C-alpha cells in the first residue's frame, strides 16, 4: 500500500469537517496567509460539540504533524477512528440544523 503524507493531513481535515457538522476549515483565509499560519504551527481548533471527543481530536492533531514521518499510517488511523466511533455511532444524532449530539439516554457510564 502506498502511503502519501498528504493523505493523513487530508483525512484529519475531513474528520474535522465531519465533526464540526460541515464547517469550512479556515474560511475566507488567503492561501498565502494560510501557509504562513500552518508553518507557524497553528491548526484547526477542536470542534465544540459532544460528538468530538478529546481522543478524536488528538487523532486529527496527529494527522497534522509538521513532519510526515510523525503522522500515523493511514491504516492505523482508520482503525483508531473506527474503534473510537463505533461504540457511540448508534447514538449519534445528526439533525437538520447542522449540529451533532449524543443521545445520552442510551449511553451508560
Automatic annotation (TrEMBL):
Domain Protein kinase, chain residue ranges per copy: 1-92
Recorded GO CC terms: plasma membrane; receptor complex
One GO MF term: transmembrane receptor protein tyrosine kinase activity
Matching InterPro entries: Kinase-like_dom_sf, Prot_kinase_dom, RTK, Ser-Thr/Tyr_kinase_cat_dom
UniProt record, GO biological process: cell surface receptor protein tyrosine kinase signaling pathway
Name this polypeptide is given: Protein kinase domain-containing protein
Organism: Amphimedon queenslandica (Sponge)
